[in-house]
Write the structure tokens for this entry.
Amino acid sequence: MSITPLMPVYPRCGVRPVRGENCHLISEDGTRYLDFASGIAVNLLGHSHEHLIGAIQRQAATLMHVSNLYGSPQGESLAQRLVDLTFADTVFFTNSGAEAVECAIKTARAYHQSAGNTDRYELITFKNAFHGRTMATISASNQDKMHKGFLPLLEGFKYVDFDDLEGAKAAIGPHTAGFLVEPIQGEGGIRAASDEFLQGLRDLADEHDLLLIFDEVQCGVARTGTLYAYEQYGLTPDIMATAKGIGGGFPMGACLATEKAARGMVVGTHGSTYGGNPLAMAAGEAVLDVVANDTFLAEVRAKGERLRGRLEQFIGNYPELFDSVRGRGLMLGVKLKIEPRGFVAHLRDRHQLLTVAAGDNTVRVLPPLVIDDSHIDEFMDRLSAGAASYQPEAVA
Ligand SMILES: *Cc1c(COP(=O)(O)O)cnc(C)c1O
């Protein structure tokens, strides 16, 4: 037998973390890495945050799981908090980002179908988007590399260029149910939508009775310096998927919606065995305790500006390697002039610095939100050593 016990769907690197300490990861062989990837925007509070650990420990000893057939004081409490903090009136808890997007897609279809509009099932989505790896969420993305081997796709998605309002408008037809968009594309390369684009989608949605769905799985939960990125655009979606950072490392997600948008989601229409379990709710509450206040959010913005300023100053030293810096808050991307995977591996293996590659030749910089200036200094030291020693093979 040559297949590995772990199904070999990931190109796993040699780093094998066994422990986390604040903003560092320690591997099996004792090597210490600066973690500016945070499990891809998940470990908002770093790796050993006492408030989060305490909340999970206490809840694990009290009650981990009960069926959604019973009342949920824990779920009601966190849902109420999210409702108070956002545009939403109601929340469905999931275990992952893809499930949150899946619920958003179902909510949009049910909105129209519950009103008798059975032909309005199509979502307009945007090129180079990433919405997850289930059949519905790969169907929502135009990326062939995720489709290959898994055809046929789910019907009902139309792909348009990101940030192309005219294209989105032209794609509206008799089957259109709404738009599904990441306000800031993550996997696509830390590309923020323009104000005009999102406002234009909002206006089109209002005009044509369409639903505006935001996928904030990566950009949400304080990452960009506001609790959700949409706040910075001065508008609200009808439905939103959130996950990644929301549990601070505990698997959880949520689909948020207005009362109107959720009109089709009535008893018996959707469900999840684990979604909203008390343990996940405790993790979610603990994360909100820390991040959902003006002081913390202002700090994220300030740290983001400091890090961005340092990066912008620095990249000019290596004009053949670096193109530009982009992103908001602590969701930053450094666009390279070459394919980024080699450089990400070099930073990791030679300089013990963890970042993540993304589309559009971008290196993602997604540190825990609890970094301090010493971590920014350490990051810049390792990055500049990495840039100085990097010899891309591809250049020859
Ligand atoms: C990661 C991600 C998802 C999928 O989340 P999973 O928890 O891996 O299912 C969906 N949308 C966006 C924008 C993401 O970054």
Notes: The CA atoms of residues 33 and 352 lie 5 Å apart. The chain has a mean pLDDT of 97. The chain has two domains: 17-50+294-395, 63-291.
